[in-house]
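Support reply, case 0932

Customer input (verbatim):
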Amino acid sequence: MIHAKNTHEEEKMESQKRQGAEYEFYGKLPLKKAIPLGLQHVLAMFVGNLTPILIITGACGIAGEEFGSLQVDLLQNAMLIAGIVTLIQLFAIGPVGGKVPIIMGTSSGFIGVFNSVVQVMGGGILAYGAIMCASVIGGLFEGILGFLLKPLRKFFPAVVTGTVVLSIGLSLIAVGVNSFGGGNTANDFGSVENLLLGAAVLLIIVAVKHWMKGMASASSILIGIVAGYIIAAVMGLVLPTTGINADGVEYTKAWVLNWDKVADAAWFSVPKLMPVKLVFDWRAIIPVLIMFIVTAVETVGDISGVMEGGMDREATDKELSGGVICDGIGSSLAALFGVLPNTSFSQNVGLVTMTKIVNRMALASGAVFLILCGLFPKLAALISIMPQSVLGGAAVMMFSSIVISGIQLITKEPMTMRNITIVSVALGLGYGIGSSSGILAHLPQGIQLIFGGSGIVPAAIVAIIFNIILPKDNV
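Our regenerated output:
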């Protein structure tokens, strides 16, 4: 009885606390409050915003010394674009933007499909250019879908959006584990040093997340990354930084920090438009177009989640439509700056749901901070020298959290036999094909490219089709 009374009083006090401007989207919030609340959002997504570029440039083979300045430019542009597209989402320009408390950033959901494109095209700067061209076209395509969202919304219930998000998370876990070992192209992949460094970062993130509170807990991934840098720097002082491979050639170990790259980067630079030439290639365009349909479904889920969790109501058709249009147009804009597609950030949806802070000015102050970061290349260079095992220590947890988000979306509706069938068949085929893409070896290359690799696309298509054709449950 005492516990129940205390719980009731705590809920009452919590309700009273949520009467301030920070809990109202249009509330007037002074800068001294808006800035730290906005920075909290930036800290929650900062690393995740840059991670996809590090992974894809690495897969393309444009992350070494020869392309070092290009990678810094791309990371710089990623911060700038995330800030600009977030402001558009918050304030809207005509129909573009849902005026919803969403932070936008570089999508990790495309990593699987982009990795497949890179493998088919053989990597290199041409593959990255093809990815950018496909993203420009795909973004415009998603923008059109946004205008048509109202009549299409019935095809994307929680069981479909949840299955898509779950398949995205599952497809990324292997990517995170590869980074955890130092990157599967590294000479010392899976070395004790790489594994211990990745494990240290992961354990620090977990400890900070659960044994600290407030902004520190919300920023646990950033704190873990910073700790990883410090540990790697100390390792460089006490351990050998080079090794000899099987061919007798000396190499620098994957965990070694390349401070020269930071020293060579400029303090201030105007972001470059089209740092990578666009390359038209259907092998990239077709799977990326399908992935943008999947992204539209995921964005509907994110906006629905943030409105329900942060503002205690369902999202309107106008909010969903504007949000998806912003996703598409923002992704096309990002590609013109050499940045991977910009979409709603699920990490920040969770932060809004947890804190209930939905004030537009608070989130906008975080967006302005991202824009300022995009003007200082030294910061981008500092991020680009991050050891893969440090990145992997954070990515393992980040990508796994996407799996949990998918499960939460699926279980928002009763797990009827119909919904169980949709999830089971979609994941069984989608994730199964993604993990054993050799099953498609005798099919045309176009089909292999679309359905192989990540498994996200077949999972999404199966979930959408089964949701349409299976009879509805009798209520």
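We compared this against your earlier run and they match. Two observations from our side: The longest strand covers residues 104-106. Confidence is low (pLDDT under 50) at residues 10-17. Please reopen the case if you see a mismatch on your end.
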